[in-house]
Write a structure and sequence with these properties.
Number of domains: 3
CATH architecture of the largest domain: Orthogonal Bundle
Number of helices: 21
Low-confidence stretches: 341-363, 379-384
Shape: elongated
Number of strands: 11
CATH class of the largest domain: Mainly Alpha
Structural class: alpha+beta
Helix content: 55-70%
Largest sheet: 6 strands, mixed
Strand content: 5-15%
Distance between the termini: 90 Å
C-alpha cells in the first residue's frame, strides 16, 4: 500500500488537531530532496519508506516531533545532511531523535549473536529517549513489509533480527501487538516450511473455532447484561500465527491442545469488575480445572495484566476468555507507548499501584511528570541504571559507568592504547581527555607512540577501576625502574 503526503497530513490532523502541517510539508520536501534518485529494492522511490515510517508512528499515537523525526530518520545516514542542519530547520528535539536512530544504524553486523548483544545494549542506551525505539520499530515494520524484494541472505538476516532482537525488546516494553506483528511478518522468511505447515494445519480449525466463539459472545453479552454489568465490551481475538507456532512446539505439535486459537476478550472499567465478570462466567459455564490465571494479582514481568479462564460451552466446546480493564488493555497493546496514547486519547484512568510489574512502574512515572520531557528523564533514570553505551569507530558497543571519559574508553579497548592515548575524538570532533562521555557517542582514540605512558593527573580523571589500576600499575613500575636505575648508576 502506497502512503502519500496527504495521507500523512490527514492522520496527523486527526491525532494532533493543533499541529503545524506546514512543518510536515517542509520535512517531506527536505526528505524528498535528500533521497532524490534513491530507490528501494522494490523499485519505489525511497521517500515512500520515509512516509510509511512516519504514518506508522502516527497510527501508534506518537507525539508530533516523533512523527516528523520518522519522516527524516534516514536523512543523515543516507545523505550528506548533518544533524546541525536538521536542528536549524526542525529544532533540537527532532534533530536529537534522528541522531538517536542514526547511532543505532552505526552498529555493524558481525554475526547474529554479537550483533544482537550490541543492539540490545544500544536499545537500553537509547531508552534515555524511548521515542527513538518507537521510530526504529516503525522503520523495521515497513522494511518487513517489503522483505520479499530483498536477496534471500538479507531476508534471512532481517527476519532473524526481527524475531530474536526486535520482538523480545517490544515484548519487554509491553508492546504486545507490535511484537506479534514483527514476528508474523518475519516468520515466513525465517522458517518458511514451518509457516506453511502452521497456516495449513490451523486454517480449518480457526474457522470452526470462530463460529463457536461468535455464538459464545452473544451468550456472554446476555449473561453480563442480565447480571447488571453496565459497561463492558466482548469481542473475539484470533491468535497470531507465530505465537501459535511457539505454542504448538510446547504442545507436541498437537493442535487439539490449543484452546485459544480464537479467544474472547472482555474489557470492563475497573479491576473489581474483572473479578465480578469472572464470577458470572463461572456461574454460567463450567470452568476447566487448572486453566484459571490471575495476572492482575501477579502480573507478567513486562507488566501484562488480565484474568484468564477457560470454560466449556453448552455444546461441550472449549473457549478461552480474557478479562481486563481498559488501562490494562492499552498497556498490553501499546506498552510504554501507552503514555502517548493515553495523553492524546484523553484517557484519565490511573494504573493501580498494587502488584505493579516492571512496565507499569515505568508507566506510573508519568503521574508525577508535568510534561513529556520530565517523563522521558524519569524513563532514563529507571532504565539506564548509571551506565552509558558508546560506539567504537568499527560499530562495537562499549559499556562504561556514567561519568566515564575517553581515557576510560581507551583502557577498556586495550591497555597499550590507554597508556599511549594522544587525543580523543567524540562524534568526529576533537575533545578534551576529561570530557564525560554520553550514551550513543562515537569515540575514537588517536594513539601517540611517542608518549612514554600515562600522567599521574589521569588518576583524577578516570572513573573505572580497571583504568585506575592500570595507570597505578604503570606508574609503580616506572618508579621502581627509576629507583633501580638510580642505584645502578652508583659507583
Amino acid at each position: 500500500m502506497t502512503t502519500t503526503l496527504n495521507d500523512l497530513k490527514h492522520i496527523i490532523q486527526q491525532k494532533h488537531p493543533t499541529a503545524d502541517l506546514s512543518l510536515v510539508e517542509l520535512a517531506y520536501e527536505f526528505a524528498e530532496k535528500a533521497h532524490a534518485g534513491q530507490t528501494r529494492f522494490s523499485g519505489v522511490p525511497y521517500i515512500q519508506h520515509s512516509l510509511a515510517t512516519a504514518y506508522r508512528l502516527a497510527t501508534m499515537d506518537m507525539d508530533f516531533p516523533t512523527i516528523i523525526a520518522g519522516l527524516l530518520h534516514d536523512v543523515p545516514e543516507d545523505t550528506a545532511i548533518t544533524q546541525q542542519e536538521l536542528e536549524k530547520e526542525f529544532g533540537e528535539e527532532v534533530a536529537e531523535l534522528v541522531a538517536g536512530v542514526t547511532k543505532l544504524g552505526k552498529i555493524k553486523y558481525r554475526g547474529i549473536e554479537r550483533y544482537a548483544e550490541n543492539l540490545r545494549k544500544m536499545f537500553v542506551a537509547m531508552a534515555q529517549d524511548v521515542r527513538v525505539i518507537f521510530i526504529k520499530f516503525a522503520d523495521r515494520i515497513n522494511n518487513l513489509h517489503t522483505l520479499e524484494f530483498l536477496p534471500p541472505v538479507k531476508q534471512q538476516r532481517i527476519a532473524q533480527e526481527s524475531i530474536e532482537i526486535y520482538a523480545p525488546i517490544a515484548n519487554r516494553l509491553g508492546m504486545g501487538e507490535l511484537r506479534s506483528e514483527l514476528e508474523d511478518l518475519a516468520f515466513p522468511f525465517l522458517y518458511p516450511d514451518e509457516y506453511t505447515w502452521v497456516k495449513q494445519a490451523a486454517a480449518g480449525k480457526i474457522e470452526a473455532q470462530k463460529k463457536i466463539v461468535d455464538k459464545m459472545i452473544v451468550e456472554v453479552n446476555d449473561a453480563l447484561a442480565e447480571n447488571t454489568v453496565a459497561s463492558f465490551s466482548a469481542h473475539g481475538r484470533m491468535k497470531h500465527v507465530f505465537s501459535l507456532y511457539k505454542k504448538l512446539l510446547r504442545k507436541d505439535r498437537d493442535l487439539s491442545k490449543i484452546y485459544d486459537l480464537v479467544a474472547i476478550r472482555i474489557i470492563v472499567p475497573e479491576v473489581k469488575d474483572c473479578y465480578h465478570v469472572l464470577g458470572i462466567l463461572h456461574g454460567r459455564w463450567r470452568p476447566m480445572p487448572g486453566r484459571i490465571k490471575d495476572y492482575i494479582a501477579q502480573p507478567k514481568p513486562n507488566g501484562y495484566q488480565s484474568l484468564h479462564t477457560t470454560v466449556f460451552t453448552d455444546d461441550g466446546h472449549i473457549v478461552e476468555i480474557q478479562i481486563r480493564t481498559q488501562v490494562m488493555h492499552e498497556l498490553a497493546e501499546y506498552g510504554i507507548a501507552a503514555h502517548w496514547y493515553a495523553k492524546e486519547g484523553g484517557m484519565g484512568t490511573q494504573v493501580p499501584r498494587e502488584q505493579l510489574g516492571w512496565l507499569e512502574q515505568l508507566m506510573k512515572l508519568q503521574k508525577d511528570a508535568t510534561n513529556d520531557q520530565e517523563y522521558l528523564e524519569n524513563l532514563k533514570i529507571t532504565l539506564f541504571h548509571d551506565r552509558i553505551f558508546v560506539l567504537t569507530p568499527k560499530g562495537d558497543v562499549i559499556n562504561l559507568p556514567e561519568g566515564a571519559t575517553p581515557i576510560d574508553f581507551a583502557y577498556h579497548i586495550h591497555t597499550e592504547l590507554g597508556h599511549h592515548t594522544g587525543s580523543a575524538y567524540i562524534n568526529e570532533k576533537i575533545a578534551a581527555l576529561d570530557t564525560k562521555l554520553k550514551s550513543g557517542d562515537l569515540v575514537e582514540i588517536k594513539e601517540d607512540k611517542s608518549r612514554k605512558g600515562p600522567n599521574e593527573d589521569w588518576l583524577t580523571i578516570v572513573q573505572t577501576r580497571m583504568a585506575k589500576e592500570k595507570i597505578q600499575d604503570f606508574l609503580s613500575r616506572q618508579r621502581r625502574m627509576r629507583i633501580l636505575d638510580l642505584f645502578s648508576r652508583k659507583p
